[in-house]
Each structure stands twice: as C-alpha cells, then as structure tokens.
Amino acid sequence: MHRRVFLNALAGSLLAAPLTVEAQQSGKVARVGIAFFGPTLTPEEVAKGAAVNPLWLRMKELGWIEGQNMIVERRWGESLDQRRAAIVALVRLQVDVLIVSSHLWARIAQDETKTIPTVVMSGGDLVSSGLVANLARPGGNLTGLQALAEDLVPKQLELLKVLVPNLSRIASLGVPDIPERYGQQAAVGARTLRLKLHHFIVRQPGDIATAFREIAKNGDQGVVVFPSPSAALYRKDIIDLAAKHRIATIYPSQGYVQAGGLMSYGVNDTDVQRRAAVYVDKILRGANNSTSSLSAPLAAHGAGASRAQRPNGKKDGANNPDRVLEGLHTPEVRQVQTRARTEETGRNEGHRKEGKTPLAP
What kind of fold does domain 2-147+269-291 have according to CATH? Predict the structure, then answer.
C-alpha cells in the first residue's frame, strides 16, 4: 500500500503530460519517453499524479498537452533488469526525447542509445561517473540537471544539531548504490560538529526496521536519510519507524514531510522538474542537446512538519517532538539555511567563471 501511495503522488505525476501549439500547427506529434523507479501504475494513478506534478504543469505552460500534440510513453522498473528492459522498450519506440530521474537511469540509457536526446532530472555526479565530459559542454546525447545533494549533508547535520541541542550521536540511512560522497560528507559534517556517526545500509524493505532497532540501541539521537528512489518508495515505513523510536530525522526532500516526516532539507524538487521541462521543450523544438549545458538546481528547500503531523509521546527530553518542531522556525535554523544558500550561490558563481557550471535554462 505504501508503495502505491508514493507512486501515486510522485511517479504517476511524472508521467502524464502536456504538448505544443507549434506542433499542433505543423501537425507533428511529439513522442516523449519516461522511465521511473517503482511498480507500474494504472492509468488512473498516472492521471491523478500528473494533474499536480510541476514537470507536466510547466510543460503545459510551454504548450505541450498529452493527447493533442504529444504522446507520452511510460515505463517503470525496480530491479536492474527491469530498469534496463524499460529503457530498451522506450528506445525501440524511437521516442523524440527520453527523461530519466537519476544518473543510474542515465547510465542504462547511455548503454542503450547514443542518439536519442536524454534529459536527466538530477541525482548523482554525471561528470565523475563518466556520463558527460563536463557540465558546460556535456557532448553526446545527455543533458538536464545535476544536483549534488551530498553537498547538503553537512547542513542537514547542522540543522539536526540546532534542533536537538545536546545531539552527540547520529546515524545515516542509505542504500548500497548511494555515491560514496554522501558518507564522506556526513563524516565531514560529523567531525565538524563533534558527533559520533553510524552508517546503515538498507538493501531490502525488511532492513529498515532492523536499522532503526540498531539506531535506537546505539542511542543515536538523530538520523539523516540519504536520497534514493528506493528510500523514497518506502518513505512511509521510514517515517513511521522514526516516529515509533522517537528519533529526530531529517529527510532529503519535501515529499517526506508531506507524508508525515519531521523535517527536510534538500534539492528543490519543484525547481528541478520545472527546469527539466524547459530542456524537454527545447529538444522537441529542435535544439541540439549535445551543446546544451547541464545546470544545477537553484536553492535548497527546507520544510518542517505541521502540528498535525507531530508524533505522539512523552513531552520531555532532548528528542521531544514539540521542542524539535518549535526549533524549525528559530533564528538559528534560518541562519543555517541562509548560510547554506550563500555558500551555494558562491560555489555556483565560481564554477560559472571557470566555465564548469552553465546558466539555468
């Protein structure tokens, strides 16, 4: 059930779509392919999600409407074999543009086609993984947005430290294919804040409960959840277990908070999806994506749970949810967020001057 609820709101929303006045006038119908992590959704689930998803809302603003001047081909997969089969199916359909949600999907797409323009919606270091030559001029058929969310991990730990003042022990929760830099950045942040850090890897759904039992046994007072499609798929389980064990947990995206999680700080998903739509639009209008620079998403986004989402329980102690939630709106938290945005702006500006990071589409 949890898988369905999540895919309804997110995966389905990435998959119904918009189309162009220009294409309507020329009589040409564009064919867009999308590959997404998770089980296959029903048409009803897809339509429900698409009605509110930023990607398709932006596509509609740009003039693309599914069923009029655009056909959307959707494929899902969970295992590596399923994901590869999804990409192969889309390539055989000869779609005009392919949209993928991470560097893991992009790797499979690159194995299967060197000609179909592929738009990546953040997730992973495309340069270090060898998928593109550099951000300014990626070359080949890959373009889109690269979000190095691991750079935000130290700030996530800093926020936990502000919200739980006597924080001394924390845990990270990730999956086997998470880039090593997430763990490295967590270690850097932990050393800076003088925190003892434990890493936990979740290989299958049943490992989530086991991890939280160990986290509680270790006396860890906070958890940072690393972003990944599989973690997002089981986010309700993670949220419920964090509440059950009364452990302050910070998540990588706002969707976790909307599902009942305590707080999030990460890449702005709305920004990513709206800007990905601009890349898709340009490609469908004839742009050469081999010369289209990749861009980094704009400012990180933070969110906190509402009172209705607070876990029930005792009201004393460092991990008291009332105290933690009140801390979400303190000057100290705002100061951390402001400093993070300032550092991010400076880092991006430096990259632009070096020709490494392109301007936003």
Answer: Rossmann fold (3.40.50)
